[in-house]
């Protein structure tokens, strides 16, 4: 029974990890940017929702629905105005820019909102659960998992079925050649960032409802997202989903036997994958 | 897998990703160094008539909630000391130099050194967890500068710094409380709440504070007839508590205690509700000390009990100018627009003690003299009676926290109500003890 419960809770946790990671996966997949500010962006999204919620009388679900598209616009602009410039000076510059962004965001949030811990109050939605036999599946957890799977399916469909998606794949494979046939890499990168920001906003809001957030929490979120991407296999979105779920399940199962090793077990899984299956659980298509 | 499923990023160079990720990790590590460059102004004038107090405080970073009232207290003390004070047969002025630790022990060490060598302070005060108090005290002890700190369990301050029992330190003193006082505060509430079993669910992570509870409060619980159900040494920052919740539910425990970091408590408490672990009484330490945390939890804060060493209803007044605890709290709210916190009274007392020591010393510029006065201090002020000679070890004054519960308030969303004053009958009871979950 314990194991069944742990498995279920692990899947829900893993869903959240995957939701966090898929934006990271997309940005790296398309632009080869490791976005070190990814975790901090999730916190920014949570604060945006928090401020909107306090300032207006809108219900939380509506605030979330509004925040996500707003964030994707912010993502598009961030790419076009900030990241694009650094891309031209090579990968190290981009890395430093995202790192700088991370530092700036953390301190700006601290300055604006102080170090107080906050949550998004979702009322009974945050505290109730779906009872399946003896297992309680929290609605927040289910929402996280559904959003993760939904986002990844949607992004895959976008990439495979739309012309923008095809251009994105082409640009990802070979920016120069794609440009020769008329693909505008900057626009493609902007769209990829918009997608990534939308998913990270969802992740930030779900996390804020599920537990709590403060300005310094970003880097910790980034770590699990990194691990999910690497475990799953670089360049594969399905892999990222699987990687997130694997991470969540391993942490949760180990916690039943020994709570002190739970987080460590996740890191070990990451190391084991790196050592014995460096291409990840779902390797990207060979090029 | 469909051929398109991976196309968003086919041909990714794994080695390059790892290189970037590695650089990133290094960069994240260096972040604290980068952000540590901003210092605070210090004055260099050193005059025999000026007595300088250095305040080391975690103004920014994870511990910042401990420091919300510091700027206000400094202003209050400056105001009260505008006319100077008479010490060592002369009229002296008080100067206060504030340094931010950014919640880092390394930085705390560094700024304390600056205070001692560059600002040439006569006394250093500090507050806010062992991460602040211990490095500050270590520097002061080494440099021979009188020092008083607070808001850290005395065991962590004393044993954590390798204090010799019965001997203590020469220059460093502190006031707060320890495991025995937590027991004195929590057990009477457990006795009264009418739990059907003596099992106490204990969520203690694997960190210094929680291990002190595991090894300190655990045995005290057993002596009092309670049986701790340890949820296991989890790591701080754990995102899922299902395993612990399961253990607690299976034990049938109706009492709950914990010493986690604040974000973890928020996660745990929500998950406990989701998974139907609803203890009859939750008595928590280290978290729910400050209103911001109660606000964040919202209605889930209702009737969570914690320890309270200072509140606006404590019947104490300032030894500097006679301001009552109630007035101090009100002045704080008026000046900052924020709710008072327990740290307000403690930080205020740090300055009371400093001023008291200066007054008592024959020569307030003589560091040995001032330090000796600190060690033998016994006075009554904003934190009530504090006697540094009667503590469990030399140079420690013990406070007696009372039991409080968070409830919806009149002036602010969530306020603490004193529900059990067994450890300190001076503090008036403000309401009945109520179950956290009925």
Please characterize this protein's 3D structure.
The complex is a heterodimer of chains A (287) and B (438). With 287 residues, chain A is mostly helical. Chain A has a single domain (2-276), classed as ABC transporter involved in vitamin B12 uptake, BtuC, CATH 1.10.3470. In chain A, 77% of the residues lie in helices and 3% in strands. Chain A has twelve helices and two strands. Chain A has a two-stranded antiparallel sheet with strand order 1-2. Chain A is globular. The model of chain A has no long low-confidence stretch (mean pLDDT 90). Chain B is of the alpha/beta class and 438 residues long. Chain B has two domains: 50-177 and 312-398, Response regulator (Rossmann fold, 3-Layer(aba) Sandwich), CATH 3.40.50.2300; 180-308 and 401-420, 3-Layer(aba) Sandwich (Rossmann fold). In chain B, 38% of the residues lie in helices and 19% in strands. Chain B is built from 13 helices and 16 strands. Chain B has a seven-stranded mixed beta sheet. In chain B, strands 8-7-9-10-11-15-16 form a seven-stranded mixed beta sheet, sandwiched between helices. In chain B, α2 packs parallel to α12 and α3 packs parallel to α4 (130-143). The longest helix of chain B has 21 residues, at 14-34. The termini of chain B are far apart. Residues 1-12 and 27-46 of chain B have low confidence and may be disordered.
Summarize the structure.
The complex is a heterodimer of chains A (287) and B (438). Chain A has 287 residues and is mostly helical.
